[in-house]
Design brief:
heterodimer; A: alpha+beta; Aldehyde Oxidoreductase, domain 4; 3 domains; 7-stranded mixed β-sheet; 25% strand; B: alpha+beta; Uridine Diphospho-n-acetylenolpyruvylglucosamine Reductase, domain 2; Uridine Diphospho-n-acetylenolpyruvylglucosamine Reductase, domain 3; Enolase-like, domain 1; 4-stranded antiparallel β-sheet; 20% strand
Chain lengths: 750, 327
């Protein structure tokens, strides 16, 4: 590829070639104007050496062998351990807090109050005080000696009986009238077939294997924190602001987060545990480690909220949706926000549509974002509603989707998935009368829209080429296990035309260029173009050195396939790098704004299908196979992209069948805050999983990639619930679909 | 932290002497005890590690009378795979051992430890809850609280369920257990290991302080004997049963000549159901017969607010166990 910077309009081809087994490429021409100095765009015609291939996870061996050091693993001589005293009271006021006895306990080095007398206590687990000491036994002993007293108030941890909760009948359906709307009433009256049903989902916790927390070490007024986080820069600012009294500014704080054991949306902030850690280390004048235990992780670090959702709608004689009325109520913890629910909008383009949501406060830990916030809940309700409506109208669910889905990409995906999954045959297969095992298949769409954080030039990537031929690509953003290091390595190696083994990616140290938080599937679309730009700039510098060495004009020197030079005058990569000298080529790439022209598609599309087998005697549901097709723009590292999709499907099985927070209403305390009673899908519960990555040249920046945290998380539970509906010929409208609910659905069907 | 002494005995006599001291707990694999001690739910003054006695207390052997001797410290993996147990009459034992927890746990957990498990009730197992069985309060909190995993049968003032999945098949097979206490060996029917009245104040077992279970004995099974163990769960990987059933039948000339039926995970004790078993005797196996036995097995059930599903599921598990045993 020519190393000259394009400054004029470039014509590119966007879209995708026909999916296997389908006819007709969906390619369009676009004219884009890259920013001055940016790398020229990749498009649908680009021939890649590495991008899109099956490379291994670059840190897979380090993780599997234990060499990778997570915050939990960090240790220093003289390091203290710490714990937090938690409120046993769900609602009230702190009326007394005496720390002196705890501070005098043997082995205790620091005690800090996290609330003052008179402060409100908002939920069981609210942080009251923290202790650091020589080991966890000494710390626990001291915690038990803290005298905290509370003025307890009446509490409620059930959002369905909150003051502003809707009326619900004995079957769990919302019985309150819909708010008046003449247009909606008319649309429903005109519809040929209508349906009205209530859906419900329970609270799912993030359950990251590495809990929240970290290690803090002060050197004078400089603070270093090894933190398990999804937002290194956000946490750096958060801690600097919170610690202003300690005479520090943002520049004094360094966050290290090279390996993170999962976050799923729960680790955007340093939180009270992060602050406590730094205060304790400051007071004790020693490094302090504070990692939450599993109960604290379940009960104080957020969750995917529960929701009660109701849909009514209707179709015309042609099976087109003409009315879509939706209302939902989310459990929102004490913060009374964050419980919202999203529903698909691409089925109802011509329908009369209404959507309402209300968050209901309870005296519990508030929600935090979790893989596609609001989406798995809403898609479950909406897609199951659509299947029920389709069944009433006598239409096959796939035909119903094809009739109503307005997105071309998904039209192709529906047909492709149906072919691969064997939809028609599986759907037509009837269960033998009286059979104990009931089989069924179901499907769901997915959508998530994010093309990165454009217009944030502060996001960047450092690229260095050393004289020994090795290459560094560095970001200060974190990687909570999703494959960012591999993505950066592949982009860099592709741009430089070198072996992937020569590239080392490092992430998670705030001394390196800033990047986004790992949220909303923004990291890949934000950093892939920056990594490419950095490699592109580094390549230009290397080309200049080689040009000078060979005595040829720099503008025409190429760097590809491990060779740098012009025409027949080529240096091997290793030879070329020897020209660099002791100081490496050291450049910083930036994240330019997205192109002004319209991208091929503004969001990511997916479809999933599931098959279940239900024991009608015991109500036990087994998912036997799942198939997903997922678009993420340009596929950079195929195996890792597939891993993100399959992982989301596994999480979806768990959400559909197993996971739920169970609260004791009297005490306001979670009963199953461990990994024994909080049930997460394990290997023997997993179906055969398969996915197809649908690579699309999107044309929104020089790379055209999208992230995969959210998109594949949307559809799984909905597809499983629809398969259960098919198998039972009766819907289970409440997740998780545990045996008791299946038996109830069968009994009600009669 | 309350300090405790840790005894590593050289032989059974030394273990028994240590076990007789006050405020002492015995540790097998420690699968659960270590967790409870870390959570300070149990804070003994002394812990006696029995694992050094594996040489004398582990292993499976056929005795001269055709019975099977199972050492108390035999692991679940050994039980599942042992050559002496590859017999249709003992299928229930292998099935039960093989579906417990995870391979890691089965490689470590012992037979006696499984039978002597502490309840998994979420009220009992959190010091935040002042419940009677946990020794922290006046009443059972689960009776009126969240009880989807709790008892439906045989409960008095505490609705915990007995979590052992080896106890039902051992009871169905007519097993006995041997203990040592103050130098004396005693051998009794396994049913005597569980309290006759499983009240909140009673522990899960009837062992006296210092008493150590040394072996289980499964008597020689008659010709035509077959057994099966089934349990319902909410997931297949590492879960506790919501209901369980072990059955042993003796088939003669196409009819059931003798039967035993024991339920698990539905009451504070593993529950033999003699009336259900008696209904099978003299009959030819059939779906209708199994349905009848299942109904009898759950006769007199008293479900709580959130666990009546256990009746439907439990009856299905009884039918399935009978089907597997007579197939």
């Amino acid at each position: 590829m020519n190393a000259r910077t394009p400054q004029e309009d470039v014509k590119i081809r966007v879209g995708y070639k026909a999916l296997p087994g389908q006819k007709g490429d969906r390619l369009e021409e676009r004219t884009v104007k890259p920013a001055a100095g940016d790398a020229p765009p990749w498009d649908a015609m680009t021939q890649f050496a590495l991008v899109g291939s099956d490379v291994d996870r670059v840190d897979g061996l380090a993780k599997a062998s234990g060499r990778a050091k997570y915050s939990y693993d960090v240790t220093f001589p003289g390091m203290l351990q710490a714990m937090i005293l938690r409120s046993p009271v769900p609602r009230g006021k702190l009326t007394a807090l005496e720390l002196d006895e705890a501070a005098r306990m043997p082995g205790v080095q620091a005690v800090v109050a996290l609330k003052e007398v008179g402060n409100k206590v908002r939920f069981v687990g609210d942080a009251i005080a923290a202790v650091a000491g020589v080991n966890l036994h000494a710390v626990r002993d001291a915690i038990e000696r803290i005298r905290a007293e509370y003025d307890r108030e009446e509490h409620n941890v059930d959002y369905l009986v909150a003051d502003d909760a809707p009326m619900v009948d004995e079957k769990g359906a919302i019985s309150e009238d819909w708010p008046a709307d003449e247009g909606m009433t008319a649309a429903l009256l005109e519809a040929k077939v209508t349906h009205d049903a209530t859906y419900r989902v329970e609270v799912q916790t993030h359950s990251s294997l590495e809990t929240h927390g970290g290690v803090a070490r002060w050197t004078g007024n400089d603070l270093e924190v090894w933190l398990s986080t999804q937002a290194t820069f956000g946490c750096r600012g958060e801690l600097a602001r919170a610690l202003q009294g300690k005479k520090i500014d943002v520049g004094s704080v360094t966050i290290h987060s090279e390996f993170v054991g999962g976050g799923f949306g729960s680790k955007f902030g340093a939180g009270i545990e992060g602050l406590a850690l730094c205060l304790l280390a400051h007071a004790a004048k020693a490094p302090v480690k504070l990692m939450l235990d599993r109960f604290e992780e379940h009960t104080t670090t957020g969750n995917r909220p529960g929701a009660l959702m109701q849909a009514r709608g209707g179709v015309d004689a042609e099976g087109r949706i003409v009315a879509w009325d939706w209302r939902s109520f989310g459990h929102a913890g004490f913060s009374a926000s964050g419980g919202s629910v999203a529903v698909p909008n691409y089925y109802t383009a011509d329908a009369k549509v209404r959507r309402n949501h209300k968050d209901l406060a309870i005296d519990a830990d508030p929600p935090r974002p979790m893989r596609a916030p609001g989406h798995p809940q809403g898609w479950f309700g909406a897609e199951l509603f659509l299947d029920e409506l389709a069944a009433k109208a006598g239409v096959d669910p796939l035909t119903f989707r094809l009739n109503n889905d307005r997105e071309q990409i998904r039209q192709d995906q529906w047909r492709f998935a149906a072919e691969r999954f064997g939809w028609a045959a599986a759907r037509a297969r009837a269960n033998e009368p009286g059979a104990r095992l009931l089989r069924g298949v179901g499907l769901s769409s997915a959508r998530w829209g994010n093309l990165g954080n454009p217009g944030r030039p502060a996001h960047g990537i450092t690229c260095r080429i050393h004289q020994d031929g090795t290459v560094e690509t560095r970001s200060g953003a974190q990687e909570p296990g999703v494959g960012t290091k591999t993505m950066l390595s592949v982009i860099t190696a592709e741009e430089l035309g070198v072996d992937l083994k020569l590239v080392k990616a490092t992430v998670g140290h705030t001394g390196d260029p800033s990047g986004p938080a790992s949220g909303g599937s923004t990291v890949t679309p934000s950093l892939a173009p920056a990594a490419r730009h950095a490699a592109f700039l580094a390549k230009q510098q290397l080309c200049e050195l080689v040009a000078k060495h060979l005595g040829v004009p720099a503008a025409n020197v190429t760097c590809a396939g491990g060779l740098v030079g012009l025409g027949k005058e080529q240096l091997r990569w290793a030879e070329a790098c020897k020209l660099i000298g002791p100081n490496p080529i050291d450049v910083r790439g930036q994240r330019f704004a997205n192109y002004d022209s319209k991208p091929f598609h503004g969001s990511q599309c997916g479809v999933q299908m599931a098959e279940v087998e239900i024991d009608s005697w015991t109500g036990f549901v087994r998912v036997t196979r799942m198939f997903g097709i997922q678009d993420c723009g340009l596929v950079i590292a195929r195996k890792l992209a597939e891993s993100q999709v399959l992982g989301a499907m596994i999480q979806g099985v768990s959400y559909a069948l197993h996971e739920q927070r169970i609260m004791d209403k009297r005490s306001g305390r979670m009963l199953n805050g461990d990994f024994l009673r909080y049930k997460i899908t394990g290997v023997r519960d997993l179906p055969e999983l398969e996915c197809h990555m649908h690579s699309i040249a999107n044309g929104h920046d020089s790379v055209g990639a999208a992230g995969l945290g959210e998109p594949p998380s949307v559809a799984s539970a909905a597809a499983i619930a629809n398969a259960v509906f098919h198998a039972l010929r009766a819907p289970v409208r409440h997740l998780p679909i545990t045996p008791d609910k299946v038996l109830k659905a069968l009994a009600q069907k009669g | 932290m309350k300090p405790f002494s840790y005894v590593v005995p050289k032989d059974l006599a030394e273990a028994a002497a240590a076990a007789a001291q006050p405020d002492t707990v015995l540790k097998g694999a420690g699968v659960d005890l270590v967790d409870r001690m870390k959570e300070r739910l149990q804070t003994p003054a002394q812990v006696v590690n029995l694992l050094p006695l594996r040489r004398e207390l582990a292993g499976v052997a056929r005795t001269a009378d055709g019975a099977v001797h199972i050492g108390a410290l035999t692991t679940l993996t050994e039980l599942e795979q042992h050559a002496e147990l590859q017999d249709p009459a003992l299928q229930a034992l292998r099935q039960s051992a093989g579906m417990t927890a995870t391979p890691h746990v089965r490689n470590r957990a012992t037979v006696a430890g499984n039978i002597l498990q502490f309840t998994r009730c979420w009220y009992v197992r959190s010091e935040a809850f002042h419940c009677l069985h946990g020794g922290r309060g006046p009443t059972c909190l689960a009776v009126t609280g969240e009880n989807r995993y709790h008892a439906v049968l045989g409960w008095l003032d505490c609705v915990r369920v007995h979590p052992s999945n080896l106890a039902p098949p051992l009871l169905a097979l007519g097993a006995e257990y041997t203990t040592t206490l103050a130098g004396k060996e005693r051998r009794r029917a396994l049913a005597e290991l569980f309290p006759a009245e499983p009240r909140a104040q009673n522990p899960e077992h009837t062992l006296l302080p210092g008493e150590i279970v040394t072996a289980l004995h499964v008597p020689k099974q008659p010709a035509g004997a077959r057994s099966a163990y089934c349990e319902s769960r909410e997931k297949q990987t590492f879960d506790w049963a919501t209901t369980a059933c072990a059955v042993r039948v003796v088939l003669q000339g196409g009819k059931i000549a003798a039967a035993d039926l024991v339920l698990g995970a539905v009451g504070p004790n593993p529950l033999p159901r003699p009336k259900a078993a008696a209904a099978l005797v003299g009959e030819a196996p059939s779906a209708a017969l199994f349905q009848k036995a299942a109904e009898l097995a759950f006769a007199g059930a008293n479900p709580l607010a959130h666990n009546d599903y256990k009746l439907t599921v439990g009856k299905a598990i009884v039918r399935q166990a009978l089907d597997e045993a007579t197939r």
